[in-house]
Every structure is written in structure tokens, then in C-alpha cells.
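Side project, low priority. Logging it here so it doesn't get lost.
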Amino acid sequence: MAIENGAAGMVPAHRSFTYPLSHADQQLRASPFAIRQSDSRALESSEAFQIIRKLFSNQQDSSFCESHLPLTKADEETWLLHRDITHAIILPVLHIHRQASEIAQSFLCSKSIFDLELAFTGEARGAFSWLQCLIGEEDDWCSTRGCPACAVTYVLESEPTIRLVLVACRLSRFLRKQASDRNLPLFDFWRSSLRKALDNDPFWGPTQAKEIEARAAQLEQGLLQLIQQSCQLSDIIAANEDGTEKERLLGCPTPYHAHAEDSSKRKLSILAKQQQTKNRLPEEQGWMRKIVVGCWTTLLADAASARIATTQTGSEHDISAERRKSMAS
């Protein structure tokens, strides 16, 4: 990721080359984050978070690398909890980017990743491009694959990973409010824990932590605009598809799907349609809820599929055992 200018000068994008080696062993032994028992209990009572944990544990290998072994049972549980928190925090942001990408592909009639940002304007375009770059470079970490402890400590590895977690924490309260579901997890406590970890980190420190926090606030506004523009573009696509279907029934041409349209005309069409959206005032709760509910509906559907698969496997196992028992008798 590129290094950006902060208010107090240059902010390092990565600490790997200058992080004091004397802190390496300490970093491996314990998580840099700490949470209160009350926050831990709140997560335990969150049905949505528990669904994420169970689904994720079924999909991912939770074995630790040699650098983090041996572990006590308590340390292992702490690393796994912090890994799952990290996964749950960034999951909605990744879902927002995925939804925006699909909408941009439909709107532009293009699957080129280099064209997708053209569907958005202003801070929304900047947020989309930033996420696209980060996800492309840090795909394994964004999916929290591999050693749980490595995934947790990697949060502090670079400015972009810190900023992503901070903005995801900031979004969690707003997303839960818009979804009108108090059962969705709230991660204000993790934001505070991350700030303390940054303040105490020998590389980052309090000054850089404040600058990264300011950038996270700006990125949050860009993401909110990205959600809004995505919903507006989705409405445009739906309206065009309705019009295209009517034209097809009437035997008329379908200019929206005319792939021979040259790029300059397409860009002018995009700008014209985006200008039309500026005159519309969408209801905030509507388009926010559309994204949030979509994210959690997908999770619940995946969890249900996982339970069905597990049940079927268990039933097949029981049937096989019964058959073997019958054959033996």
C-alpha cells in the first residue's frame, strides 16, 4: 500500500523493516489485544457472532504455526476468540465491497477490475479503490486464513490493516442501528483495545494512532457514500432491465445491452445517469438496511446449509452403521 502524508508528516505504511527485534518474542507469546469480561460475555450472548464463529470454524483450519507453539489451553482460546473477532469485524466491509463490485459490473457491462471504480464518484470511488487494492494485496489476511495468532498480530503489521479494522469497528454501531437488530455484534470495545495496542506499540505509538484514526473516519464516510451509490446504481439497473424487457416484448432494440457501444459514449451515459441520482434523496435506513440485511442473510443461509450438510452426513453415518449392524447380525 502507498504511504500517505499525514498532518504531522509521513506515516510509515509497514513496520516489518524497522520493528525492534527485542519485541518479537513478546509479540508471539500473547495477543496485543485485551478485552473485558463483560465484553466477552456480550459476544457470547450474540447469536450472530456465535453463528459466525461456528461457521468459520467449520470452514477454516485453526491450527497454529510452529512460531506460536506450544500454547496453553487458555492462550489458545484467547487467540481463537481474537481471530474470530477480527473476522467478524471486517466481514461486513468485505461484503460491501463484493456487492459494490457486482453492481459496478452490471452497470458498466464490464468485468474488468480496472473499470469498476468508474461506476462511482467522489469519496465513494476512493473508498472502493482503496478496498480493492487492500483486498488484492492482503487476500489471505482479509479472509483470516492460516494460523489464528498470525492473523491477529498481522492487524498491527501495516497502516492499511489497522485502518481497515478501525473503520470496520466504527461502522459496526451504525450498521446495527440501521438494521434495527440489537443482536448484531457491536465492536466499540475492540476499537478501544486497538487504540491501546497502538499507543503501547513501540513502532506505532500515540501520534501515529491519532493520524490513522483520522483516516479511518474519512474512509468511513467514503464507505457510506459507496453503499448509497451502490443502491442508487442498483435501482438504475433494475429500471433499465424493466425497460429492456418491455422493449423485447414490443420487438424494439435494447440499447442498454448494446455491447458495440464505444467507450466514450458509455462514459457519457454513466455520467448522465449518475447526475440523475444526485437529484434523488434516498432514505438512509432503506439503503443501509439493504446492505446489512443482505450480509447477515448470506451468513445465516451459509450457516443453515452447513447445518443441513452436517445433519445429512450424520444421518448417512447412522444409516451405514445400522446397515453394518444388520449385516453382522
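Brief comment: The chain is about 70% helix and 0% strand.
Revisit when time allows.
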